[in-house]
């Protein structure tokens, strides 16, 4: 998806897209020549809100879209239907430019690319072009990483992705791999130790920015494939587990947005990258794991591995004394049962942070829904032999107890939010095809800009 798909309008030759408010459609139609009215009538186009039509006018393509406001997906369905060419919208388009770009996204790594040709949009909002392109690129990065098969995306490939980001923005990369994790990051090591040597576990870190600036940490779950471990998943449950590194993809993409915008922060990106594989040395149900924080964890389910690797990563993040930690993880099926695929649960004890994230999500059509860190469920994490279990019996409040587990590894007094993202769209929507996708990414970026923007 080239950056040339969105350009400043300098009067270049372009086809016209008319943007009409629903209550203005009849007036607009009355101003059109008979040939246009006939063309729209032939399509039985009535100007319904959200509808669009493409028609020929004077031997050229023209389009109309009827919409109340410029939401991010207003032009997404239209651009998917348009032929290649350059177009101009005779109205302010705002966030709709993002849908124009993402409506042209295709994941073609494993098949011949569709030759639809570029659809270029000219916009008078030249000041917003650069950031819109960056957000589209960040979304595309999440989609590409999640859509890539696990055979082509292991811990090493995630490390490569972070290395490219560090090189592009002048960040400092550090990686702890394999058996070197055993003492400093024992839970990351335990979860990933059964993988083959080439896919050994690692903690990938990137630091960027002036150390004098406020320190923030972004943490992403990087389970590149999840068999469930010895508590093996059924085949249906394993089918999409290439996406279990979706949290890492979100954290990586958000870090890229922060650095590209040059927000005045000291950024710390942490991605614990593992494959939860099965072998003779796989960690077992009943094992008691030590953590970087010093807490011991009775492993009651090897398929609740994401919270284990995040525990060590969150501990490391907290050691830097950040004022804010955001973590992203494809953590629980319980979150999907509660809220479905489109609505990521948000967990935080910080009411101000919650309000900011929820408001940004509504404004950007990138929503979250706050679920409680209910202290009364903390007792579900009790163990008879260790400081805690990783997965309580009974299955009650699974998303909440997973978030409570993570909270044990976040330093007191640090603003922290946990997003239990799905990272996958089971059914396509305009601008959002079936497959890997970013959730709450734009909302989080806006909140960071509001808090730390120049």
TrEMBL record:
GO CC annotations on file: cytoplasm
Keywords: Aminopeptidase, Hydrolase, Manganese, Protease
A family per Pfam: Peptidase_M17
InterPro entries recorded: Leucine_aapep/pepB, Macro_dom-like, Peptidase_M17_C, Peptidase_M17_N_1
Ranges for domain Cytosol aminopeptidase: 301-308
Presence of keyword Manganese: yes
Iron-sulfur keyword on record: no
GO molecular function: manganese ion binding; metalloaminopeptidase activity
GO biological process: proteolysis
Assigned protein family: Belongs to the peptidase M17 family.
Designated name of the protein: Leucyl aminopeptidase family protein
């Amino acid at each position: 998806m080239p950056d040339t798909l969105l350009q400043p309008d300098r009067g270049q030759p372009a086809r016209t897209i008319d943007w009409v408010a629903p209550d203005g459609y009849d007036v607009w139609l009355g101003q059109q020549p008979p040939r246009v009215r006939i063309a729209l009538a032939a399509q039985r186009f009535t100007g319904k809100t959200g509808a669009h039509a493409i028609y020929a006018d004077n031997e050229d393509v023209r389009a109309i879209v009827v919409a109340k406001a410029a939401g991010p997906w207003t032009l997404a369905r239209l651009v998917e239907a348009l032929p290649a060419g350059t177009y101009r919208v005779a109205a302010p388009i705002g966030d709709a430019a993002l849908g124009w770009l993402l409506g042209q996204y295709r994941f073609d790594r494993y098949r011949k690319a569709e030759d639809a040709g570029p659809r270029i949009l000219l916009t008078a909002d030249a000041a917003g072009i650069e950031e819109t392109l960056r957000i589209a690129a960040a979304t595309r990065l999440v989609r590409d990483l999640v859509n890539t098969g696990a055979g082509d995306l292991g811990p090493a490939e995630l490390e490569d992705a972070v290395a490219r980001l560090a090189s592009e923005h002048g960040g400092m990369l550090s990686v702890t791999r394999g058996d070197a994790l055993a003492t400093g990051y024992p839970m990351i090591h335990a979860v990933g130790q059964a993988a083959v040597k080439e896919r050994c576990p690692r903690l990938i870190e990137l630091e960027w920015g002036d150390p004098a600036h406020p320190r923030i940490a972004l943490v992403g779950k990087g389970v590149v494939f999840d068999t469930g471990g010895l508590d093996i998943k059924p085949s249906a449950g394993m089918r999409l587990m290439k996406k279990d590194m979706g949290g890492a993809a979100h954290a990586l993409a958000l870090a890229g947005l922060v650095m590209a915008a040059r927000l005045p922060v000291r950024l710390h990106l942490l991605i614990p990258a593992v494959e939860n594989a099965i072998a003779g040395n796989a960690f077992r149900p009943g094992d008691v794991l030590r953590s970087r924080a010093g807490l011991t964890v009775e492993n009651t389910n090897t398929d609740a591995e994401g919270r284990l690797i995040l525990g060590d990563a969150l501990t490391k993040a907290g050691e830097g004394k950040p004022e804010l930690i955001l973590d992203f993880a494809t953590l629980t099926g319980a979150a999907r049962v509660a809220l479905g695929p489109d609505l990521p649960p948000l967990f935080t004890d910080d009411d101000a942070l919650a309000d900011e994230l929820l408001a940004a999500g509504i404004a950007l059509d990138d929503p979250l829904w706050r679920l409680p860190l209910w202290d009364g469920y903390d007792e579900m994490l009790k163990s008879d032999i260790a400081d805690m279990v990783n997965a309580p019996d009974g299955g009650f409040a699974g998303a909440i107890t997973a978030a409570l587990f993570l909270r044990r590894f976040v330093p007191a007094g640090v603003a922290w939010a946990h997003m239990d993202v799905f990272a996958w769209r089971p059914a396509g929507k305009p601008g959002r095809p079936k497959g890997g996708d970013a959730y709450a990414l734009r909302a989080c970026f806006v909140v960071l800009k509001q808090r730390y923007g120049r």
